[in-house]
């Protein structure tokens, strides 16, 4: 059985589960609980844990509780039923844990990736790591010790290729890139571009302003390449739908390689 060193062995409110209970849960919600999480529920469902603190890409996170699968009060079962009722969480995301501010962690039943959502930030999920084994190892390494700093997982998750949410500018926006001398007109967003049998992701495609499209030349760039926005294009409800679809796509494809425009020689 995996080691769960962050579990407090006393002062817990555990509701011990059986394999039959877990199996019935899987059938009801049409999912398969991964082995490491199954072992946790069988041994420590409802146990208190030592609070964990870690850093990823400069942002601090904490884990205060692993959500019980079944039981009174907040449980995975209750939260899934409420998610269906209020339609506020994608069906493939399963509650996993929370932090001291009641923000939530979820695991994706399609690939076991772990995501974090701030309590008031409906619709935006931050990718944390690949796999529940990885998540529990983070907890093992980061549960609180007064003499040690928060555990930085940035290097161990760098290859996971988080696709962060982008507040996309509307089409027709005019921007200047860092180090650029000519303005660009945004004519495309969310581009998958193939190079050397690999597919790379760019936030934007643009053309020189005021020249417009000449031939088939397009400049690919990302949101963090923009130095100044001179003009924001038209936006309406249709634009909002496109933005939601783009960010949903990015959430569901964390393995996509975001290209570095400075190294791009297409």
Key traits:
single chain, 266 residues, alpha+beta, 2 domains, 6-stranded mixed beta sheet, 5-stranded antiparallel beta sheet, 6 helices
Describe the structure.
The protein is an alpha+beta fold. The chain has six helices and 14 strands. Strands 9, 10, 11, 12, 13 and 14 form a six-stranded mixed beta sheet that branches. Strands 3-4-5-6-7 form a five-stranded antiparallel beta sheet. Strand 1 (52-56) and strand 2 (59-63) form a beta hairpin. The longest helix has 16 residues, at 237-252. Mean pLDDT is 82; it is low at 158-162.
Low-confidence stretches: 158-162
**CATH fold title of the largest domain:** SMI1/KNR4-like
Regarding quaternary structure, what we see is single chain
Q: Provide the domain count.
A: 2
Annotation, overall tally of beta strands? 14
> What is the average of the pLDDT values?
82
Count of helical regions: 6
Query: Quick one: CATH class of the largest domain?
Result: Alpha Beta
| Amount of helix | 10-25%
- Gyration radius, rounded: 22 Å
Whole-Å distance between the termini? 50 Å
Outline: elongated
Taken as a percent bin, the fraction of beta residues is 25-35%
Q: Strand count, sense and closure of the main sheet?
A: 6 strands, mixed
Note the run of SSEs as H and E: HHEEEHEEEEHEHEEEEEHE
Q: What's the architecture of the largest domain in CATH terms?
A: 3-Layer(aba) Sandwich
* Computed structural class: alpha+beta
């Amino acid at each position: 059985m995996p080691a769960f060193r962050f579990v407090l062995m006393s002062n817990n409110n555990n509701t011990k589960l059986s394999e039959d209970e877990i199996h019935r849960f899987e059938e009801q919600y049409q999912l398969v609980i991964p082995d490491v999480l199954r072992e946790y529920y069988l041994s420590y469902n409802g146990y208190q844990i030592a609070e964990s603190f870690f850093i990823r890409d400069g942002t601090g996170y904490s884990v205060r509780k692993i959500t019980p699968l079944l039981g009174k009060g907040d449980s995975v079962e209750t939260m899934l039923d409420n998610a269906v009722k209020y339609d506020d969480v994608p069906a493939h995301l399963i509650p996993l844990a929370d932090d001291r501010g009641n923000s939530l962690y979820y695991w994706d039943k399609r690939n076991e990736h772990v995501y974090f959502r701030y309590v008031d930030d409906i619709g935006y999920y931050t990718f944390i790591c690949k796999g529940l084994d990885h998540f529990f190892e983070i907890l093992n390494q980061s549960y609180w010790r007064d003499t040690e700093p928060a555990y930085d997982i940035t290097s161990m998750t760098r290859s996971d290729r988080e696709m962060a949410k982008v507040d996309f500018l509307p089409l027709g926006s005019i921007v200047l890139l860092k180090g650029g001398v000519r303005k660009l007109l945004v004519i495309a967003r969310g581009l998958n571009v193939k190079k050397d049998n690999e597919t790379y992701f760019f936030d934007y495609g643009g053309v020189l302003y005021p020249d417009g499209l000449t031939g088939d030349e397009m400049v690919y760039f990302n949101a963090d390449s923009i130095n100044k926005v001179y003009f924001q294009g038209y936006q309406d409800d249709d634009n909002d739908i496109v933005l939601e679809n783009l960010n949903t796509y990015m959430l569901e494809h964390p393995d996509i390689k975001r290209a570095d425009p400075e190294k791009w020689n297409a």
